[in-house]
Design a protein that fits this description.
Layout (H helix, E strand, L loop, with lengths): L5 H12 L22 H5 L7 E2 L6 E2 L13 E7 L3 H12 L6 H13 L8 E5 L4 H7 L3 H13 L8 E3 L12 H8 L3 E3 L9 E9 L3 H12 L4 E9 L2
Helix pairs in contact: 4-6
C-alpha cells in the first residue's frame, strides 16, 4: 500500500475543512486548482471589451483613429466592466481582503483582452500605478504591481517598477464625493525618480479599476512630462 506524504494529508484535511470554492458560483474547484479563486467557466463567461476608449467621453476609438480628447494624455484600455460580478469579486478580494491569489485570474483576463486587440504592444513597458509606501506596507503588497507583473510575463513585455512613485499620501479616491474632489486629492501625488527612464518610451500604466480616471490622468501627466511617447492605461475594469 503506497504511503501518503504529510503534505498530501495536510491538503486533504484543508480541503475537507475549507473546500476550495469558486468565488463567483461557489462550485467546488478541482483538487489540482485548490489555490485558485475562480473556475474556468466563470472566467470564460466574463464579457471583455474589444477596443480602446477615450477616457473623457468613453467613446470607442476605431483602430488607427485619433483620440477625441487629447488633453487626457492617455488612451483607456479596460478589459471588462466593473458591473460584472466575477470581475467585481476578484478585484474586491484582491484589493480589500488581501487575496493575492486573485491577481492571477485578473491578469489572465487582462491578457486575453490585450491579445484580442488589433494593436501591437510589443514596444511598450508596463508601469504599475504605485501605492504610497504606508498603504502598501499595511496591505502587504501593491495589487497593481502583482497584476501588472504577471500580465507582462504573459505578454512578453518588460516591467518598469519603482521609478514612478507615490510621494503624497492621499485619502482613498473612493471616499471622494465627485471628480473635482478626486482630482484635487490626487494632484501632485506622483513623480518619477529618473525622468529620463521614461523619455521616448511607450508606457502601459496598469491598475485594477478606474472610476473617474483622475488617478490615471495624474500618472499619465507625469509620464508625458518625462517625455513618454505614448501612454495606454490598462485596467482590469472600468466602473462607468
Amino acid at each position: 500500500m503506497p504511503r501518503i506524504s504529510l503534505a498530501r494529508i495536510k491538503d486533504i484535511a484543508l480541503d475537507a475543512l475549507f473546500p476550495p470554492l469558486c468565488l463567483t458560483c461557489a462550485k467546488l474547484l478541482p483538487s489540482h486548482r485548490r489555490s485558485s479563486v475562480s473556475c474556468d467557466a466563470c472566467l470564460t463567461a466574463v464579457p471583455l471589451y474589444d477596443g480602446l476608449f477615450c477616457p473623457a467621453c468613453l467613446r470607442r476609438i476605431p483602430h488607427g483613429g485619433r483620440l477625441c480628447h487629447p488633453e487626457t494624455k492617455y488612451v483607456l484600455a479596460p478589459a471588462a466592466n466593473y458591473g460584472n460580478m466575477t470581475v467585481q469579486k476578484l478585484i474586491w478580494q484582491c484589493k480589500y481582503h488581501n487575496w493575492i491569489s486573485a491577481a492571477e485570474p485578473i491578469a489572465k483576463l487582462m491578457t486575453k483582452y490585450m491579445q484580442g486587440l488589433p494593436h501591437d504592444f510589443g514596444g511598450y513597458a508596463v508601469v504599475p500605478i504605485p501605492l504610497h509606501k504606508n498603504r502598501e506596507w499595511s496591505r502587504g503588497f501593491n495589487q497593481a504591481h502583482v497584476i501588472g507583473t504577471r500580465m507582462a510575463a504573459y505578454l512578453g513585455i518588460p516591467v518598469v517598477a519603482g521609478n514612478l512613485v507615490r510621494a503624497k499620501k492621499t485619502s482613498a479616491q473612493a471616499d471622494q464625493k465627485d471628480y473635482a474632489a478626486r482630482e484635487e486629492n490626487i494632484r501632485g501625488a506622483f513623480h518619477a525618480l529618473d525622468p529620463e527612464a521614461f523619455k521616448g518610451r511607450s508606457i502601459m500604466l496598469v491598475d485594477d479599476v478606474t472610476t473617474s480616471g483622475a488617478t490615471l490622468h495624474e500618472a499619465a501627466k507625469v509620464m508625458k512630462q518625462c517625455g513618454a511617447k505614448n501612454v495606454v492605461a490598462l485596467v482590469a475594469a472600468r466602473a462607468r
